Amino acid sequence: MTPVLAFIFNAQTVFDGAVFGLTYGMLAAGLVLVYRSSGIISFAYAEIGAFAAALLAVMVLDWSWPFLPALLVVTLVGALMSAVVELTVVRRLKDAPRVIVLIATVGVAQLVLVCRISLPSISGFGRFPSPFEGSWDVLGVTVRGDQLLVVLVVPVLVAALGVFLTRTLTGTAIRGAAANAEASRLMGIDVRLLSTLVWTIAGALAAVATVIIRPLQGFSVSSTDQALDAKLLVVGLAAALVGRFRSLPVALAAGVGIGVVERVLLLNNPSQPGLISFVLLALVLVMAFRVPELVDRSAGRWSFSAAPRALTPREAQRWSLRNLGRIGITLGFLAAVALPFVITLPSRQQTAAEMLIFALLALSATILTGWAGQLSLGQFAIAGVGAFTTAAVMRGGGTFFAALAVATVVGALTAVAVGLPALRVRGILLAVTTLAFALFAQAWLLDLDLFDGGRPSIRVPRVIEAGIDLGPQRNYYWFCLALLAVAVWIAARVRRRGLGRQLIAVRENEQGAAALTVGPARTKLVAFALAGAMAGLAGALYAGLIGRLDVTVFSPETSIQVVAIAVIGGVTSVLGAVIGAIWVVGLPALLGDSSEVKLLTSGIGLLVLLMYFPGGLVQIVYAGRNALVGLLGRGLPDVAPTERPPIPARPASSRHPVPPDVAVLRTDQVCVTFGGNHAVDHVDLEVRSGEIVGLIGANGAGKTTLMNAVGGFLPCTGQVWLEGRDVSGLAPARRAELGLGRAFQNAELFPDLTVHETVQLALERAHPSSTLGVLLGLPGARRREHEQQSLADELVAFFGLGRYARNDIGELSTGTRRITELACLLALDASVLCLDEPTAGVAQKETEAFGPLLHQIRSEFDLPMLIIEHDMPLVLGVSDRVYCLEAGRVIAEGLPADVRGDSAVVASYLGTDERTILRSGSL
């Protein structure tokens, strides 16, 4: 034995670990290939391999196939299944964000699991088949037959893959398409065909890797494993992350390293086999911070939202239509209360209570994933922490009600700790880290003596407390229903108030949210805390429901199922969380409660809904509601149009008055460097009170980069001063709070917020929402909400946006989004406006009206502005002074006429065409 850093190991340990690691490396290689070709992490990858391995066991042991022919067949099966996934799911969702495609692969994994457990049962009992039996001593190391298979297969396959990718035209085309798909298309390469080929190769690798690892795991062929193979997936993802999802050799080497570390840990800590899960979690976290580029690379909206259409003024006359939602919810709640009188069997009442608990868990996923855009695959693990906390509190003499409160708080704190990586990573990387946490929680965290007192299973009794007998299943069902109702009420309030708007804004556009004073980091952590509190409470209720806790209950696979429930119901809807739980948990109970039915209602349901009803089941409910509203609204008299509201008085400003000759915004020697190149090179600029300053220059001159540095969205050297205060070290949201208004080039704003909600979001600076007040429904929170609504109405009317007030931003034209953005900047009550190409993408007629609008805003609100604009007549016509940039440096500044005639500006930007120069002075 050789001691190193208090660990002992020998050559046999290293060899055993390296053999395991070779299989991990093969799994990672397939994940790397898939990611490089399509930017997707397939959560169905390991499950395809598990199906192939199960099929091989049936073929060899029951159908008497020779091992090698069976291996060839299941390899082809794995390849074909992976290709079908690419052709039917990935291609259909090609325009969806990668996170949505990742969720779809979760559905694929569950569907493949259905196929696996539906295979014929294997008669007899024994180890997983291997072509070689016996063992051999080689250089002091014992080589078993199953290890020999790995040593022979993996190097050959890896070498063949390397030759294929580097020495063949097809391999070269695959690598080229992975590096630059658009350039490959221009060269006539069929990128879609190459993607299918890569998925096919990856499926074959998954099949072979899983087949050869099963004997090493001591896998029993008689066992019916009805869970997704989460550990293999996490190990493969960890190794692929070390290779940055780019390098196959590094990923393979990382797999070998993980295998060796796992064997060494088992040798030194045989009583803690789950310790490797801690190492995997740490490795994933470290690599997630080092590979931040693996975020959602696709364009398009993050999620698919479903919402009922707004009532027309005519329909709003009828009380029943205005309150249709409340009527439906009330009737549904009364039906839920009466359910135990219809379902009298205690076992069925327990299933109904379980459905309510999973609705609560799905609600936590709605807040975190649907609203905040943080895809967490660890919610049931947090519920496990809440459950074991409940047991620990009661073991220490606490009451069940006290345990519920403690579990809720602990769940919130655990979620915040898990969510800290979300401050740096999001999307698919966050999904990977939370899945690693789910594995860690089951394998090690929940097994600590802190939770279970050193016992393998612990009881959580339900007793009479505060006069409430929670023992009978019916009573416990009502108790769970009451807590779910409170959680639904809180969640609905959150979505309708400022906190909900902030969550959606951060999900849709972090930079835009920060420009309106919404701190993305704080907002994400609030979402994690709220979702974690609900998950912790759900875990405590689950502990009371099942009565006896065991770590195996809180599996990573169930955390994945929680997300599936939310997506099936409607991931952005409070109602969707309840509908999803009824579909996934309640419906199987009515149809026989078989495992196949459970998985079909989640796996197939998830896929069908994502591809055909992206808003979830609630989308169908809303469609029915809209039809009913249209039917009941017929025959109502038309409503006379209301008069246009007057121009609002200037809102009370929080800004300090600035003398006319003092700079409201000033930069001193600001520099921005990218890889040694100065995109902005020692720029001095100022905007004085009441003036409009233009910033011109050719494309690539550094204009937008300078404005991003001023706003805090890019690191820079030098200083930025706002109303005499140095804001150089402040975050963008803090600069916005101090009065820096920023409009972006693409005017994206927040596609899933309405115009009215977006303006209300900007009013958070002057009329901030209280998170605690929103959660508790305090009068002050309601008062601020009404103030925001009133001011938003005035601003919407002032800018002529009344007809679009209830439209989502994503439905608007570019010009209307520009006007909405200006309305937000006025709502923000900024000290200075920084507008980046405000007429980009706007029709000529709207562009001509933009200059007078800017002058009106300045005269009405006394707002200085810094404007980047390529429309020379506009910028020179509205500006009091102009700066011209070239290669990041100021080459001219002064009055518009002087800059227009400057020889350096003419040579650099306007060119020598006299017509262009004359046109620039046409205003």
Task: Describe the protein.
The chain has 923 residues and is an alpha/beta fold. It folds into three domains: 11-130 and 143-290, ABC transporter involved in vitamin B12 uptake, BtuC; 315-632, ABC transporter involved in vitamin B12 uptake, BtuC, CATH 1.10.3470; 657-739 and 862-923, P-loop containing nucleotide triphosphate hydrolases (Rossmann fold, 3-Layer(aba) Sandwich), CATH 3.40.50. It is built from 37 helices and 18 strands. It has a six-stranded mixed beta sheet, with helices on both faces. Strands 10-9-12-13 form a four-stranded antiparallel beta sheet, with helices on one face. A hairpin with a 2-residue loop joins strand 12 and strand 13. The protein is globular. The N and C termini lie far apart (86 Å). Residues 295-301, 641-656 and 912-923 have low confidence and may be disordered.
Short description:
By secondary structure, the chain is an alpha/beta fold. A hairpin with a 2-residue loop joins strand 12 and strand 13.
